[in-house]
Automatic annotation (TrEMBL):
PANTHER family named among the record's database cross-references: PROTEIN PHOSPHATASE (PTHR47992)
Region annotation (Disordered) ranges: 1-131
The PPM-type phosphatase domain, residue ranges: 113-404
Organism: Haloarcula saliterrae
SUPFAM superfamilies to which the protein is assigned, alphabetical: PP2C-like (SSF81606)
Bilayer-spanning residue ranges: none
Annotated protein name in UniProt: Protein phosphatase 2C domain-containing protein
Length: 437
């Protein structure tokens, strides 16, 4: 699994504002024996594949006194607070695991010299690195209310939700030891969680964060709000829960397409659904900052009973998928949106003016093209920040990207509907059967 994060205060707020976004990421990587049963194992005849040759990178790592060999599990946690600070001692740097895995894989797959390559027997294939099982939790929140309100709300959201969901992700991995050819009695294993169970866990974790923010608001006498989008990735599926207008996207490299995995709880989204405004107006509408649902409040509710509606869903992922979570600082970066909206309306919504609007804002097509054209996830994340600031830098921007190429490849035929609001006639869709092959 590869991942990266990036975040910025936004050009308009630079020097005179704060970062009210908060981002948390917890990764669980488990390696055992000679790798995952998927892509790097034998042909299914019951015999284990040969262990991969030790690369120079592996040998050097083994000589380091700090590098302890383990066939258990390694957990890397990244929690970026509302102020953009990352604890230096106990947090893995963004993309660090990515770089280490890529370096080891490259070393294993590349001969050390031309002489060594010549010595290989005809038909020999360099073995692949074993693929670990990955699971993870991400939480991204965008606060509102300024100092001691929005930034605290987003911080509470990312920490409380992550704290409650990390065990869920680990449970999902631990309950399937057969994927490492391990035979353990079900009596000593946790209950297997289905999609509905994980969605319930997401809902409960987000409601718990909602209550803690309300408790803080009551104690501090502030109005404290935040959006949140959270995901649990395990066993090839991404389970999502969200409130507000922070989003999750999926970009598939094989099909060169982007779909939105979430649907904004926002006034403009409702108007667009009802056909009151078109897609161009939705990009630049003056009320684009109004959301219809958020965590937190003014503190007048009972923090032990407060509730919030959480939307949840689950989608299957493939090897060519990249998941992007982002605050609205990417989508709503344009500072001249009200003027563009008025010009579009005054031009009687002409196609020429629509093209001008699309060039000025960040569109889904551009979001897709950044992933498809980037050399790495780090490069894509950096480009999103640059693009948002170039288009106006209206607000804080936070992005998270991850992908797992140990998953099965994207089917050449039909794939499950994964968009939150698919623009298709479901009655005309053929049945798609997804197998493990």
């Amino acid at each position: 699994m590869r991942y990266t994060t990036n975040y910025d205060i936004g050009d308009r707020k630079r020097g005179q504002g704060i970062n009210e976004d908060s981002l948390s990421l917890t990764i669980f990587e488990q390696g055992h024996r000679d790798g995952y049963l998927g892509k790097t194992r034998g042909s299914g005849d019951g015999e284990e594949a040969d262990a991969p040759k030790e690369s120079e990178a592996d040998a050097e790592a083994a000589d380091e006194p700090e590098a302890e060999a383990t066939d258990g599990a390694e957990t890397a946690t990244e929690d970026t607070t509302a102020h953009g600070e990352t604890p230096a001692d106990d947090v893995a740097p963004s993309g660090a695991a990515d770089s280490a895995v890529e370096a080891a894989t490259e070393a294993a797959e590349t001969p050390a010299s031309d002489d060594e390559a010549d010595d290989e027997e005809p038909g020999d294939e360099t073995p692949e690195m074993p693929a670990n099982r990955s699971a993870g939790v991400f939480v991204l929140a965008d606060g509102a209310g300024g100092h001691d309100a929005g930034d605290v709300a987003s911080y509470i959201a990312t920490t409380v939700v992550a704290e409650n969901l990390a065990p869920v992700a680990i449970n999902a991995v631990r309950s399937h030891p057969e994927e490492f050819d391990i035979d353990i009695s079900p009596d000593v294993l946790p209950d297997t969680l289905g999609p509905e169970d994980i969605q319930t866990g997401l809902e409960n974790a987000i409601i718990k964060a909602h209550r803690e923010i309300i408790r803080y608001a009551g104690d501090s006498g502030t109005q404290s709000y935040t959006t949140v989008v959270a995901g649990v990735y395990a066993d090839g599926q991404l389970h999502l829960g969200w409130v507000g207008d922070s989003r999750a996207y999926l970009v598939n490299d094989a099909r060169e397409e982007i779909v939105s995995l979430t649907k904004d709880h926002a006034v403009v989204e409702e108007w667009a659904d009802q056909g009151e405004i078109d897609s161009v107006e939705a990009h630049v509408h003056p009320d684009g900052n109004q959301i219809t649902r958020a965590l937190g409040g003014s503190g007048h509710e009972d923090p032990d009973r407060a509730m919030v509606d959480v939307d949840t869903r689950s989608v299957r992922l493939f090897a060519e998928d990249t998941v992007l979570a982002t605050s609205d600082g990417l989508i709503d970066a344009q500072t001249d949106a009200p003027q563009l909206y008025q010009q579009y309306v005054d031009a009687d919504r002409s196609e020429e003016m629509a093209a001008t609007v699309r060039e000025a804002v960040v569109t889904d097509a551009e979001i897709r093209d950044v992933v498809l054209g980037a050399e790495s996830l780090d490069a894509a994340a950096g480009e999103y920040v640059r693009l948002a600031n170039e288009r106006g830098g209206k607000d804080n921007i936070s992005v998270l990207l991850f992908e797992d190429d140990t998953l099965p490849s994207t089917p050449s035929g039909g794939v499950p509907v994964r968009a939150a609001d698919p623009d298709i006639d479901l009655s005309e869709r053929d049945t798609v059967i997804i197998t493990e092959d």
